[in-house]
Design a protein that fits this description.
Number of strands: 12
Structural class: alpha/beta
Distance between the termini: 68 Å
Number of domains: 3
Number of helices: 13
Shape: elongated
Length: 341
């Protein structure tokens, strides 16, 4: 009679091979009821683990997937390039990337449900804040896949860690900068967002408005523009606002689409002083805008540090190692024209 294999155990227990692997190696992410089914199937079949195979399994690759928003967002495309360039930096780790339509919670939920737990051990996802994404993420965790959110969090979900900056703090920093830049010039402030469907944009707006309303009462905040991180939409909508209001003193672009901000400023000829501008992420375009004086400050998060933290946290979760509570916290940097790296 042939010796029972892990395939036999998986069939009898009704679980995937990756779940069997997690149970055998004592990794997290498997519910107690599922573990009990696996152990019962092993007992019923008389399964005995092969020590040599177990040692080999410990050296197998951790298979990670990064789900990033598609589109022209320079920061996201930079993350994607770094992932490709650094893919071989982590031993016994295979990294894949997949893009989904930006700000499309249904498409993101579908992509999460399409993850094969037999081919993927951990997922890093730029989350949209919606019930369907929360449910799809919970299903993925039930299938034994480790999950961290990246850049934009979903704290009420079953994600295990968040990797990114404190976005409320980033918004408050932007307000402190812009309020000082506009001091002595009462007027209106324009907020340019991507979408309020993503928590990082909502949190940045919250922090920004808290500080500006409390400390810079001579500035009126106009209703936020949602440009979907598309430079053409941002350029059109922002120019329309600039043309309508003759007393715009400041612009805070809290998402992508900063090329659209620069275009709107270049196209709009106004008699008053140029609005002060604070944006996010140091890209080639925002760097040039700092240098030519179109932008005043850039709030930045380091993509290399974010990728490294996400990979290392997922590796630890997959292998059952402890993770420090603040392992995913990334600090913010503020760049002016005179301190560009």
């Amino acid at each position: 009679m042939s010796r029972p294999t892990i395939h036999d155990v998986a069939r009898l227990a009704g679980v995937s091979l990756s779940t069997i692997d997690r149970v055998l190696n004592g990794r997290r992410g498997v519910r107690q009821a599922t573990q009990a089914r696996v152990f019962e199937a092993m007992r019923e079949l008389g399964f005995q683990r092969n020590a040599a195979a177990a040692n080999l399994a410990r050296r197998r690759q951790d298979r990670l997937l990064f789900l990033l928003p598609a589109g022209s967002n320079s920061f996201m495309r930079g993350l994607e390039r770094e992932l490709v360039e650094r893919a071989e930096a982590w031993e016994f780790t295979a990294i894949a990337t997949r893009t989904v339509p930006a700000f499309d919670d249904a498409a993101l939920a579908q992509a999460l449900r399409a993850v094969d737990p037999d081919a993927t051990d951990g997922v890093a996802v730029v989350a949209t804040d919606s019930a369907v994404v929360r449910a799809a993420l919970a299903e993925l965790r039930d299938r034994g896949v480790a999950v961290v959110t990246l850049v934009s969090d979903l704290p009420s979900s079953r994600r295990q860690y968040f990797v990114g900056i404190d976005n409320v703090q980033a918004g408050r920093t932007a307000a402190s900068l812009l309020g000082r830049f506009c001091r002595g010039r009462p007027g209106k402030i324009v907020i340019v967002a991507g979408s309020m469907l993503v928590r990082d944009h909502a949190e940045r707006r919250l922090g920004f408005e808290q500080v500006l309303r409390a400390e810079f009462g001579d500035q009126q905040i106009l209703p936020a523009l949602e440009g979907l991180d598309d430079q053409d939409i941002v350029a059109t909508e922002l120019k329309r606002v600039l043309d309508r209001h003759g007393d715009i003193t400041g612009i805070y672009s809290l998402g992508a689409g900063t090329r659209g901000v620069a275009r709107a400023l270049a196209q709009h000829r106004q008699p008053q002083a140029r609005p002060s501008v604070v944006v996010h992420e140091l890209t080639p375009h925002s760097r040039q805008a700092l240098l030519d004086g179109s932008f005043d400050a850039v709030i930045h998060q380091d993509p290399v540090r974010e990728i490294s933290a996400a990979v290392e946290i997922l590796q630890s979760l997959i292998r059952g190692r402890a993770v420090a509570p603040d392992a995913g916290r990334i600090g913010i940097e503020v760049f002016l024209r005179d301190n560009l790296p």
